[in-house]
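Table S2 (text version). Query chain:
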Amino acid sequence: MAFAPVFRPWAAARCWPIAAPRAASVFPPDQSLARGGVMERLEPCAASLPPATPGLARLKKRREFLRAAARGKRAARPGLVLQALAVPEPSLRLGFTVTKKIGNAVIRNRARRRLKEAARLTLPGMALSGWDLVLIGRDATAERPFPLLIEDLRAALRQAGVAP
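Corresponding structure-token output:
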């Protein structure tokens, strides 16, 4: 017989704020906790979570990455390399890659997460469309201060002619 961990609503809200609504729908509120207890103190926190932002369109197939590498413009900065390919569709698609030369899986995933967050914060404000962008992590991506990484992305976009 297999056992799955089940969190009570107050435990789920304390450990993982996103799980609180899901746990609350499974378990009815315990009256002793609801009146002046833990649940009453935690519900304002769940309401103050920022709304989820829609994800940017992604490049996922190898041929899309290869097309951007072969025909696209290239811009290298200390924190990243950008490959930009103009496409006829009026959309902005992103691809991220970090090679094994950078380090082990932990370092590669950290570099990829930092590139995704820099793109998420930078690109929607620029109102770009009609581009396939590939962001390639470098040795310095994982340790570079985040404001400098964002500035590297903006400079690479200008250097490649994507942004003014």
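Notes on Table S2: The domain at 57-159 is CATH 3.30.230.10 (Ribosomal Protein S5; domain 2). Helices lie at 9-15, 19-26, 31-34, 38-47, 62-71, 105-122, 146-159.
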